[in-house]
Amino acid sequence: MPNQKRRREDRIISKCLFPAAGYGTRFLPATKATPKEMLPILTKPLIQYGIEEALEAGIHTMAIVTGRGKRAIEDHFDISYELENQIHGTAKEHLLDDIVSLRQACTFSYTRQKEMKGLGHAILTGETLIGDEPFAVVLADDLCTHSEDGVLSQMLSIYQKYQCSIIAIEEVPPAQTSRYGIIAGEPLAGEEGLYRVDDMVEKPDPQDAPSTMAIIGRYILTPDIFDILRETPPGRGGEIQITDALLTQAKAGNVLALKFKGRRFDCGCVDGFVEATNYFYQHTTPSTKEGL
Question: Residue 286: pLDDT band by 50, 70, 90 thresholds?
């Protein structure tokens, strides 16, 4: 059971890390010069949905790990004097209301991942932006939606109670386990959809998977994860896997998995991207559709 004593990690989580340095090869040629995180679902890029989810959870400091060719992300969350002046006072001015509100509510910082060595390496690269404090992680191509609290809000409620690393999970078909990190764990008594993790495997074949509970792109991590990542050797695919580092924490009883409420779209693949586009269009009000 995770240690519930008050300790250094017992703080409000104020920072969210966005690993955004990947090439997005499944969307080539569209992503040759456009970051995959900037691909739009209707009129908003994927990463903006993630930023909005973090802000909804009360997080105001956004730390983004980028790479070469990702300048569009920085430009998107910066002021655009020419554009904003051009549409000021016109019927189109309201179209920038959401992004202007985000710019005013959030602080954005950036660092570059010089080599693509896996998600664990990307998170370690973000240490300079995070420092010695617990933090959230959002993978923008996992687009999540819920009619009430967002996924990060649900996870933060669990973190405040247990003060340990939290991962979001969902059931996947057995044939898809080779696409995810898969966990094994025991349900926590009295906690709906919450598991104490005792094992996790990165992208196992179906016959080797310990369950069908897959990790998706939402994490709450305690700062000791950085030291663990530094000592974690390359794993599957020669990359530094966050699942390997989390397993070290799990062996000490310090990782919980939340089967979150809501729906998740895998926008890292074309099928999921199209599914998300159709879903958000169908759930858009008629007046909004007229402006699309």
Answer: low
- Tokens matching residue 113: 């991942």
- Provide the domain limits for residue 237: 15-290
Q: Where are the beta strands (DSSP E) in 11-148?
A: 15-19, 40-41, 44-45, 61-66, 107-112, 135-138, 142-145
- At 262, the amino acid letter reads G
Residue 32 lies inside a defined structural domain of this protein: yes
79-138 pLDDT, tens digit per residue, is: 988 998 899 889 988 889 999 999 999 999 999 998 888 899 999 999 999 999 999 999
CATH number of the domain at 152, please.
3.90.550.10
Is residue 37 within 8 A of residue 140, CB to CB? The reply is: yes
Number of domains in the chain: 1
**Does residue 9 fall inside a structural domain?**
no
Closest CA to 109 of 130, 137, 123: 130
- Give the chain's mean pLDDT: 90
- Whole-number Å distance between alpha carbons of 41 and 59: 23
For residue 252, being part of any structural domain is answered with yes
Per-residue pLDDT, 9: 44
Residue 244 lies in a domain: yes
Burial 260-291 (b: 16+ CB within 10 A, else e): beeebbbbbeeebbebbbeebeeeeeeeeeee
Question: Which pLDDT does position 5 carry in this prediction?
Answer: 43
